[in-house]
Amino acid sequence: MLKTIKLGLIVTLLLPALTYAHGPARVKVIQDIEINAPVEKVWGIIQDFCSIKDWNPQVSACEITEGNANEPGAIRTITLENGQQLKEKLIKIIPEQNKIQYMLTEPNIKAFPINTHGSSIILTAIDGGKTKVEWKGNFYRSFPGPNPPPELSDEAGQEALSSFYIAGLENIKKLAE
Amino acid sequence: MHFHNTVILFLALGTSLHVSAAPFAYITNQGSDDISVIDLAKKQVIKTIKAGHKPAGIAVSQADKRAYVSNPESKDISVIDTDINLVLKNIPVGNGPVGIAVSPDGLNTYVSDWYDHTVYILDNERLEITGQFSVGHSPSGLDLSPNGSKIYIANRDDNNLMIFDRHKLSLLATIHVGKAPFGVTVSRDGQLIFVANVQSGDISIIDGKTNKVINTVKTGLFPYAIAHDDSNNRIYVTNQRDNSVSVIDLDKCKVIKTIPVGEYPEGIDIDIARRQVYVVNWFDDNVSIINTDTLTVTGEIPTGSGSRAFGRFIQFSDLP
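The joint structure predicted for all components is written out below.
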């Protein structure tokens, strides 16, 4: 509770600056999983840009709010379990490579303590009709100055996104197998 | 200071005599807090040098045979003697040093501070910060004119480029460019200035005499840094979110080829004599080599973790 109040205070104080400067060093997030199902089946689960609401348990709703679904430039608004929303833009969808790439369009640090987020999900066929799913992302922390408080640090961002990726990957595995 | 260097050099020669010849690349690795020194002829890392925390920018100086590294998270710069590949000194500077460039005469290093909205001036002989001047918001890339008289600075959050008189430290011009300018490269003859606008996805080309934008060229997604090739009248631009390099012909002012490289390409530099461009891939932890005749990737060199090398990173000078 105290942590929430403190975070809220920091958020309020920093809001005007948030759309501008971010942390000085981008941070990587990489998670992967091996699934005992062919690439086509796994791709079928994730290929729709808004299907994230069906396969990531941390996402409760998704809606295409701009552009055409599954065309580069489309923007989805996702709602997380805690009610916070994020807008994400589809950058590339390459079915022949089983790859989808998107980015955060505006930060919401009540959802994730990050300022930017670029992300790709890539499927690779491996021996025996299995699939490797790789979810790779990068972000800048939201705290627009040096010496961030722990809840707005690089580590906090990495933890939040890793947990989000892992929850999604584990559920894709469940759905595919 | 020169005596001091000579002593260190003799000591170093005793144990690890360079068998390599220039050029060498100095690649900052943000994930491993170090610098990979690459022998570009051998295409391999020959030494790893500890830097500060999350080293980002690099400025290799031919004049005084050094590499200056900005460490935004430890708020200092590491000065490396490139003859012996050892850190001479870590110098505290500001709150978030990012962009870094050395004057062609080797006398000063200029460091843009992401948080202080300031450029700090290092005296390269004394190895002390001796001055500073205020610029716009979140200054990032900076470069100097070849004669060393002007300093060009991109202010990322003001969407502009500032030009300062280096000796008077007076503001000569402020030029509106695209959205979120980051990398700045001055052409080798000083006639043109190239600015990479990350969010608008284009390059502003500025006339160095009139200080006006004369062209804006669309690139891939998130253009970041630029290398100029005067032998072919081209520039090469890293596109962070397209995993590619745009080749722009400066006569036609358009992209003539897009070359796929590694993931999240950031730093880029060129060896014009040997017709090679080196691209630093942040996500893949390696450097892609592009041949400027064929405009294809001819190889990759593994580096450290989170390679960035924002700035001029090649040392062309051989050992004394």
